[in-house]
């Protein structure tokens, strides 16, 4: 009996020495993506960083975070090896991958994935219908702000030129009253009338005044031709998001380009799907090579119009919250979860799963999401990109005026 007690005591002491000898600091790999992990002052912050902090308190470990070297989440490359964060975990370069890693069967074969800490699916991000974002100043959209400022300067300059020419020319003076018909007010009114193709008499009698008037009218005709051309083309060719309600609508149209993140689990979903609609979408993207290299690029192309970005609904909701001119379709397919990844056989998996479940039941995950996902847009809805008057056109029109 005494011998058994001694053996148990020695075993306990030996196990404790081993536990203290092992370095408890975990090497954590992540990827920079808003709002999961963002650099700020040399440190990382975001949803995943807060979640990692809460989990570490429950599981009782310390950690050191580094950004993944190649900037990928993790997929099999041309050589048949895993890259990205999954590759670092497989090769033993990281003990834990903390990021919005989609839980897939392919990844679960090579690494141990935790219980999902967030549910997501695949949806479509596109620009709102132009009629939804039109405001009281929609008539200003054919030209950009620089063009309107240049037009204002040209208007004031021409009116001032008319005023000076009329003052210097004896033909514009009335002999009996010695008054000049082209005062500053009439010069502004006459120039504005020409800008709207409406005569605002009396007209100049001097040759120099008529030359200035003709130059202004030719400039006005050139400008209005550009204005109505831009206005008509932008209204007729601007793609409408109201015609795309889901993936079947997207597959059945050919006016709007669409794509997803290259090498992502979203692309793998369409590639491996047996659904004919999803297969057509994949074949279109593969044929047109309409992939994007980052989430930011996909959002930017969607904002520019005539492009639908296919991605995970959680990330698309964040883009919609930041950019009022964007919208996400209601259809969500391929529901999946975001998980952490660790090496197969890691002793932390069970405790990580338990910690994630406890945080979920305590409402901590929902609190973190409300903290990092804005409810309303942070930026005002801005008019979409139009076919503005190009620099060369502006230069030529101003040259016509000042010649």
From TrEMBL:
GO terms for cellular component: postsynaptic membrane. Residues 25-375 form the Ionotropic glutamate receptor C-terminal domain. Residues 381-403 are annotated as: Disordered. InterPro entries: Glu/Gly-bd (IPR019594), Ionotropic_Glu_rcpt (IPR015683), Iontro_rcpt_C (IPR001320). It is found in: Postsynaptic cell membrane. Residues 35-91 form the Ionotropic glutamate receptor L-glutamate and glycine-binding domain. GO terms for molecular function: ligand-gated monoatomic ion channel activity. PANTHER family: IONOTROPIC GLUTAMATE RECEPTOR. This is Kainate-binding protein.
């Amino acid at each position: 009996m005494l011998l058994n007690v001694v053996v148990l005591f020695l075993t306990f002491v030996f196990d404790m020495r081993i536990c203290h000898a092992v370095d408890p600091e975990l090497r954590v790999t992540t990827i920079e993506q808003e709002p999961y992990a963002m650099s700020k002052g040399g440190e990382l912050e975001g949803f995943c960083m807060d979640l990692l902090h809460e989990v570490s308190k429950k599981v009782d470990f310390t950690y050191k975070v580094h950004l993944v070297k190649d900037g990928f989440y993790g997929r099999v490359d041309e050589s048949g090896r895993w890259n990205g964060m999954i590759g670092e975990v497989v090769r033993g370069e990281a003990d834990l991958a903390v990021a919005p890693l989609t839980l897939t069967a392919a990844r679960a074969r090579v690494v141990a994935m935790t219980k999902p800490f967030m549910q997501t699916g695949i949806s479509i991000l596109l620009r709102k219908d132009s009629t939804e974002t039109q405001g009281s100043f929609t008539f200003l959209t054919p030209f950009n702000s620089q063009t309107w400022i240049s037009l204002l300067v040209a208007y004031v300059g021409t009116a001032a030129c008319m005023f000076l020419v009329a003052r210097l020319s004896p033909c514009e003076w009335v002999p009996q009253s010695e008054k000049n018909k082209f005062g500053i007010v009439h010069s502004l009114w006459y120039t504005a009338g020409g800008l709207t193709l409406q005569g605002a008499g009396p007209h100049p009698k001097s040759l120099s005044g008529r030359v200035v008037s003709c130059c202004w009218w030719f400039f006005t005709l050139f400008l209005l031709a550009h204005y109505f051309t831009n206005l008509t083309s932008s209204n007729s060719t601007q793609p409408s998001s109201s015609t795309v309600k889901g993936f079947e609508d997207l597959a059945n149209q050919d006016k709007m380009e669409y794509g997803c993140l290259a090498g992502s689990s979203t692309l793998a979903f369409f590639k491996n799907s047996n659904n004919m609609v999803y297969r057509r979408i994949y074949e279109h993207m593969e044929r047109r090579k309409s992939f994007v290299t980052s989430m930011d690029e996909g959002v930017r192309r969607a904002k520019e119009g005539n492009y639908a970005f296919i991605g995970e609904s959680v990330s698309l909701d964040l883009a919609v919250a930041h950019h009022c001119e964007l919208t996400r379709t209601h259809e969500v397919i391929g529901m999946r979860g975001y998980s952490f990844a660790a090496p197969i056989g890691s002793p932390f998996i069970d405790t990580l799963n338990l910690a994630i479940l406890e945080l979920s039941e305590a409402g901590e995950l929902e609190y973190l999401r409300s903290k990092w996902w804005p409810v309303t847009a942070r930026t005002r809805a801005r008019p979409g990109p139009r076919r503005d008057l190009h620099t060369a056109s502006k230069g030529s029109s101003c040259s016509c005026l000042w010649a």
